[in-house]
Amino acid sequence: MATQGKILVYKRQGKKGITYTYRIEAGRDPVTGKRKCITKSGFKTAKEARVAAQPILNKLLLGKNIIESDITFSQFANEWLDDRKSSLKLATQHNLGISIDIANKYFSNKKMKDITSYEYQQFINDYATKVKYSTLNTRHHAIKSIFNYAVKFGIILNNPAINVELPKIKLPKKEITDLYLTKEELKDFLYFVKYKRYGGPSDYFYPLCVMLAYTGMRVGEACALTWEDVDFKNKTIFIHSTMFSKNYTHYERQDTPKNESSIRHIFMGETLINVLKDWKKLQLRLRLKNGGLTNKIDKEDYVFTKFTRSVDGKHKEIVVIPNVIRSIFDYMNRIGAYPKHMHAHMLRHTHVSLLAETRKVSLTDIQARLGHSNDRITKEVYLHVTEKSKRDTAKIFEEYIK
Predict the structure, then answer these.
(1) What is the pTM assigned to this prediction?
(2) What does the pLDDT look like over 345-364, one tens digit per residue?
(3) Pick from 218, 223, 229: which is nearest to 370 by CA?
(4) How far apart are the first and last CA of the chain?
């Protein structure tokens, strides 16, 4: 029989095969006189069980509390997120919520104290087959923070997410040329959108696509623009906000940038200026046609708005949110309306590739225009395009000296 101050490890045969359990005798309850013991199962090896039990035994010998809470992962994770909401941007709250939802598929009703390192590793191994490594790392970091918080406040004694290995599973890699459009493809795509060949009735979609392709800005930044941010006289756009949205009952313009370099002034060319001027005129005509400012939902004078029928039968004017843009691209891809698989961010990458092709704009200047000081895809696209230019340069030189 195990005695206080010793670790007992034993083998169990269950549905998942052979696992190991540790048990630590913690003396007797001074009130009831009943024996107290700490047990935890699900370890892959006896050594793993003993290693997990040792810190608990050390705390017991030092007279510290070793009784873990019965709270479930789902309950504690929600409390953890609630404690942080006041200091987080809405987008960050949303992303952390997604991480919790993913972990809940594996641990929802399981008690925090019963989740072992082996079980957590199995979760990581399974999830790694479904996502790219960067996504896996982001989710793991968030979930590990939940367990760290639980250890800090004595909910559990050990963090099962520590020392877990993140497998690098090679997913089918996209060709770099699939990430952007060539100059001719961009012209073709904008023509396709302008004349609504995709089957959509959205008047705002063409000017918004031109905005994305001719500035490289993010979709959330474009949706958050107001006409006050657009200076036709000085040919500049002031980008300082982004639009967070879950749906049309939960969206918000945020004046806190993604990073410091996200706040920027960028210059416009004549093509974009003319497209925006034409859109502004059409937007005003549509507003008058649909009841004027009285039917406008948002107080801000957003650049990109749409008119939607409300429950009272009237057409209300409301800002275009990123979800709507994604839906249009998803619809186009689903029905095969355009030959190439498209998404809004592709227009941002296209802006990079076309600037790189000119051989007149440095990577640093492109990154400043895009509001991102260190973006991997931007660098990959730039280096891919300029590598072709380097080969062309050598060919031009040799032809010249013949």
Answers:
(1) 0.70
(2) 999 989 988 888 887 888 88
(3) 218
(4) 94
Tokens 């609504």, located at residue: 196
**112, 150 contact by CB (below 8 A):** yes
pLDDT at 8: 86
Q: Is the pLDDT of residue 28 over 80?
A: no
Q: What is the pLDDT of residues 201-232, one digit of tens each?
A: 689 999 999 999 999 999 999 999 999 999 99
Residue by residue, DSSP assigns 52-110 as HHHHHHHHHHTT--------BHHHHHHHHHHHHGGGS-HHHHHHHHHHHHHHHHHHTTS
Q: Give the pair of three-digit tokens for residue 253.
A: 């313009």
Q: Indicate the range of 13-22, 114-123, 260-269, 295-304 predicted with least confidence.
A: 13-22
Instruction: Give the pair of three-digit tokens for residue 387.
Output: 């590598």
The whole-angstrom separation of Cα 262 and Cα 209 is: 20
Report the phi/psi class of residue 101: left, alpha or beta, with left for phi > 0 and alpha for psi in -120 to 50.
alpha
Burial category of 49 from C-beta neighbours within 10 Å (exposed 0-12, middle 13-18, buried 19 and up) = buried
Residue 148 host element (H or E): helix 133-152
* Host H or E run for residue 354: helix 344-357
Return the exposure string of 96-134: e unless at least 16 CB atoms fall within 10 Å of the residue's CB, then b. Answer: bbebbebbbebbeeebbbbbbbbbbbebbeebbeeeeee
Length of the chain equals 402
Gap between the Cα atoms of 179 and 190, Å rounded: 17
Contact, 267 vs 256, CB < 8 A?
no
